[in-house]
Amino acid sequence: MEPIHLFVPTFRIEESLAEIRECLEKGWTGLGFKTVAFEAAWCEYTRLPHAHFLNSASAGLHLAFKLLKEADGWQPGDEVITTPLTFVATNHAILYEDLQPVFADVDDHLCLDPRSVAERITPRTRAVCFVGLGGNAGRYAEVRDLCRQRGLRLVLDAAHMAGTRTGGHHAGWDADAAVFSFQAVKNLPTADSGMICFAGAGLDAEVRKWTWLGINRDTYTRTLEGGTYKWLYDVEHVGYKYHGNSIMAGLGLVALKYLEEDNGYRRQLAAWYDDELAGAPGIERIPMAPGTTPSRHLYQVLVDDRDEVMVGLNRRGVFPGVHYRDNTLYRMYAFAAGTCPRASRASEQLISLPLHLRLGREEVRRVGEALREAVADRNEARP
Ligand SMILES: Cc1ncc(COP(=O)(O)O)c(C=O)c1O
């Protein structure tokens, strides 16, 4: 039987090649041209006011903290409350700016628990970073309200949230900055790229300089402007090479056209998993935030003896993943070990089941059956 893998991205190959061909024929593969078109298409789709295309979400998270820090005058060692149940890119971004990650615990959604966030606020807290794990908004709205009450900035790590809607809005509409990932296996796949969406026009204008080495007019804009002094620009401050390019943007433009349809199918796969696993002993499903439409980047379950269950799944031809290990188990974040017991427990129980567009009802049935069997084997083996 064919193995069933966690992620297999689907690219609309002919349409994607046409986008790339256009770049090659025009002789413009870098910043500008398609990146401008993708930013506009993203704003139109999400209704977010600003969007700047990047080479990754990791870069975007870094710049979210950098620019908010500069705007508000945060000092080194000021604190950002964050989750331990995320890809390390989230928390590294806080450290890039000499800020202090303070870990709060998660709730049943595996996203930040607003009560735990409230407990971790100190006079040095400046911001909260909320991660919409797997596209789930969790109790984001409560965390947002808490931030507003306490005068804290809110960064949404929306790496998994392309297409997630909460209360009729696209995820990120009410954050100071929302950062999306279009990395190779995300639900809007390119190869590597991301988008940073600041709430304010000032920070949006500023971030465009930071992603192009501090240069104040990019080459594409200068080309469009024409005139004798096309080559002339100023460098206002040090910056990074973080901007996206037209090849990635071309892939993104095609993927965006299909995002609604694709996420709809992901939700269908999730509903089939729900049917397979409802009431199955020893398998806990993760509730999606009520009243929201999640992207369903992931379908996660919690089981005891996870590592053995994973081996049992592999033996049955199913190859799932784990998102994520509690970051405080990593040496560099061990200073916070033991501070988030719910996240630590989940980290030992989590499995992300295969979820991608090439799966059908039969594959979901096979995975469901394999998981029920693997869990039952473990239950029998227990004293
Ligand atoms: C939750 C989360 N945040 C941030 C990132 C970083 O995204 P990128 O690979 O685009 O830098 C990822 C990517 O895996 C992620 O899953």
Describe the 3D structure:
With 383 residues, the chain is of the alpha/beta class. α2 (34-46) packs parallel to α9, α3 (57-72) packs parallel to α4 (88-96) and α11 crosses α13. The model has no long low-confidence stretch (mean pLDDT 96). The radius of gyration is 22 Å and the shape is globular. It is built from 13 helices and 15 strands. It has helices at residues 13-26, 34-46, 57-72, 88-96, 114-120, 140-150, 201-210, 219-225, 246-257, 259-277, 306-315, 341-349, 361-381, and strands at residues 4-5, 52-54, 79-82, 100-103, 125-131, 153-157, 165-166, 169-170, 177-181, 194-198, 284-285, 292-293, 300-302, 318-319, 350-352. β7 (165-166) and β8 form a beta hairpin. The strands form four sheets. The protein has a seven-stranded mixed β-sheet with strand order 2-10-9-6-5-3-4, sandwiched between helices. Strands 8-7-12 form a three-stranded antiparallel β-sheet, with no helix packed on it. It is 41% helix and 13% strand. The protein binds pyridoxal-5'-phosphate (PLP). Pyridoxal-5'-phosphate is lined by residues 56-58, 86-87, 89-90, 131, 157, 159-160, 181, 183, 194.
Give the topology, please.
Layout: E1 4-5, H1 13-26, H2 34-46, E2 52-54, H3 57-72, E3 79-82, H4 88-96, E4 100-103, H5 114-120, E5 125-131, H6 140-150, E6 153-157, E7 165-166, E8 169-170, E9 177-181, E10 194-198, H7 201-210, H8 219-225, H9 246-257, H10 259-277, E11 284-285, E12 292-293, E13 300-302, H11 306-315, E14 318-319, H12 341-349, E15 350-352, H13 361-381
Parallel strand pairs: 1-14, 3-4, 3-5, 5-6, 6-9
Antiparallel strand pairs: 2-10, 7-8, 7-12, 9-10, 11-13, 13-15
Bound molecules: pyridoxal-5'-phosphate (PLP).
Pyridoxal-5'-phosphate binds at residues 56-58, 86-87, 89-90, 131, 157, 159-160, 181, 183, 194.
